[in-house]
Write a structure and sequence with these properties.
Helices cover 36% and strands 28% of the residues. With 310 residues, it is of the alpha/beta class. The chain has two domains: 3-219, Rossmann fold; 223-296, Alpha-Beta Plaits, CATH 3.30.70. It contains eleven helices and 14 strands. The strands form three sheets. A six-stranded mixed sheet has the order 6-7-8-3-9-10. A four-stranded antiparallel sheet has the order 2-1-4-5, covered by helices on one side. A four-stranded antiparallel sheet has the order 12-13-11-14.
Length: 310
């Protein structure tokens, strides 16, 4: 298991950020999703040892994060959403310093700094002060900083935020390359197309708890209500009547036939029952794959409760 949390509870005074969170990540590339205030940042801070949980335990790459926090940090990388730089320092010097802090010898640290800059594609700007780099280049620098010490797992916080379409595509390509090198990736982002483009699994957090987790492609087909493109032979009016009686939602889709949405857990069996009861036969049935956005929104538990009075 790459990452596991059990009964994790994080509080800030009276505010509960994580409420007994249980989470397990084992894919090469995974995403952590959730609305603002769901607890994603508190979870990352707990993993990195920046916040001490009130209860529960975290295991990273088989290491207990509470018992050996330095051991965890040596093996993971973190790309923050915002800059954390010394403006006058150039990219090579900054990465060399970070590599040395991670335990590399001076010569190895400098070699790794150059390799990381080559990897992210900003080698020609390696000696420029960080403050003079463009936003996209600084974003690539933050990615280089996350991998300069050759981690086994990297946390990427909004890696494409603010990038133009070309820069976003290039950044996602780098994420794919990192995974191909054997480094596990946990992507934290609000951009669901980025998740679909790069990740195998997704974990959705809402109000400090996991409300959905699993393989993305399977979740599109199996979680919540399901929709089928249906053609029937025989008494179509009877099929429609029985489908509505069973609580199925019907939508005309032209050449695709009728889109039939079944309630959570009903599945295709409900379509066949409606056809049989209405004097029709299902001649064609294919499941309509839902988007990740639909899966994500369906997993959330409704509107947040009102904030307590100040």
């Amino acid at each position: 298991m790459i990452l596991r949390a059990e009964g994790l509870r994080v509080t800030y005074g009276p505010v509960v950020a994580l409420d007994g969170l249980d989470l397990a990540v084992d894919a090469r590339t995974s995403a952590l999703l959730g609305p603002n205030g769901a607890g994603k940042s508190s979870f990352l801070r707990s993993v990195l040892g920046l916040v001490t949980p009130a209860a529960g335990r975290i295991e990273v790459l088989g290491t207990d994060a509470a018992r050996d926090p330095l051991g965890v940090r040596r093996r993971v990388g973190y790309m923050p959403e915002r800059d954390a730089i010394i403006p006058a320092v150039n990219a090579v010097a900054a990465l060399t310093y970070l590599a040395r802090v991670s335990g590399l010898y001076p010569r190895d640290a400098r070699r790794r700094a150059h390799e990381a800059l080559d990897f992210v594609g900003i080698a020609e700007q390696r000696y420029r002060p960080l403050s003079t780099l463009s936003q996209g280049t600084r974003q690539r620098f933050r990615l280089a900083a996350a991998i300069v010490h050759d981690p086994e797992l990297v946390f990427l916080d909004e890696p494409t935020n603010g990038l133009d379409p070309a820069g976003r595509r290039e950044m996602l390509g780098l994420v794919d390359k990192i995974a191909e090198l054997g480094i596990h990736v946990l992507l934290c982002t609000h951009l669901l197309p980025d998740v679909e483009a790069t990740c195998e699994e997704v974990v959705v957090i809402d109000r400090g708890r996991v409300c959905l987790a699993g393989n993305i492609e399977r979740l599109k087909l199996t979680s919540g209500a399901r929709t089928f493109a249906v053609r029937v032979a025989g008494d179509e009016a009877g099929f429609r009547r029985e489908a509505e009686r069973l609580g199925l939602a019907l939508t005309e889709k032209g050449r695709e036939g009728i889109h039939v949405t079944t309630p959570d857990g009903a599945g295709s069996a409900a379509v066949f029952r409606a056809a049989a009861a209405g004097g029709a036969v299902v001649s064609r049935l294919t499941e309509v794959r839902r988007s990740l956005e639909e899966v994500f929104l369906a997993s959330l538990r409704g509107p947040s409760p009102p904030a307590p009075p100040l």
